[in-house]
Amino acid sequence: MYYQYKKQFQQALVEWYKREKRDLPWRRTCDPYKIWVSEVMLQQTRVDTVIPYYERFLSEFPTLQHLADAEEEKLLKQWEGLGYYSRARNLQAGVREVVENYNSLVPDNRSEISKLKGVGPYTAGAVLSIAYNKAEHAVDGNVMRVLSRVLLIEEDIALPKTKKTFENAVMELIDPMHPSEFNQGLMELGATICTPTSPKCLLCPVREFCTAFNEGQPENLPIKTKKVKMKHIPYDVFVIKNTIGQFLVEKRPAKGLLANMWQFPMVEQVGNADTTNETKLAEQYNLNLLSREKLTSFKHIFSHLTWHIESYSIGCEEQAKLPGNCQWFTAEEMANLPMPVPMQKVWQSYKIETTSL
DNA sequence: AACACGGGGGG
DNA sequence: CCCCCAGTGTT
Known about the structure:
- This protein is an alpha+beta fold.
- The protein is built from 15 helices and seven strands.
- It folds into two domains: 3-220, Endonuclease III, domain 1 (Orthogonal Bundle), CATH 1.10.340.30; 231-355, Nucleoside Triphosphate Pyrophosphohydrolase, CATH 3.90.79.10.
- It is elongated, with a radius of gyration of 25 Å.
- The structure holds a DNA duplex.
């Protein structure tokens, strides 16, 4: 972009942002910790979803020290339903590094802040530009979409190396006097005007600088190749209640999908024989099973796989030799356990079923 | 470079 | 129902 247009582009974007920006909770602070929390929550997650989590999280953990001191179970409970739970653990690990090694001051330069757990190129640039007003790139999906259209960049954004192109473009274009508003303006534009489908070009403050608007088809950018083969796994999930009114739940392993979250016992469905999976359950969990009743069936879609859930309610005699990751809890105790959404659905279904009796 | 990692919204 | 969204860590 020619120099004189670059200045005009910066001014049009920054002025539009100042005028039209949504009033969001994390835009009422410059506290680097709070900006950091918001940026981690906003990774792969929509603004409307994040807002209530952000408010609750910061009232529970108002400072770096509060978060550094938190129990993991309490942390995960705050994050419950937000997804990508390793974000929460990594955030806490990063916060502990800041408390330990940086005198509780979030670093204000890319090399140090990028060493923190969970802080990648995007989050580093977002915190540096928004909290410290540093002229650093913060390239997320919105920025790639906006700039692919404005600059007619036709590289495949599914390729990791393409991000370098966009980071270079931002460093070339960024308003050195207003880096915070410039970066947030790009993201705000992508979120509200320059949307993936049906971009509202006629409302766009920078359409006169947009190559795709003037010469091409903005709705067909950015270019992204297809990928990902979805795996499907059928599971039977069991809400198991013993004779003294406790429920059997297990903690998932510390690594992998839904790490350290709690769930009802579940077994992968093997065949069509109705009793096979229940036998497998009784063996795996060393249980004496009594009556059984059908609960909800549904599909839960992760980014890379799909669980097909069928759930059952089963009565059971209490057993002495449970697997180590299993525990009996009352309904009240279970309310404090972080559980992923599919398990909440099963639990909800159980509660509806039993209260109607 | 490829894959793992949640959950929600829209057409 | 199927489609879309996309940062960081690990390998």
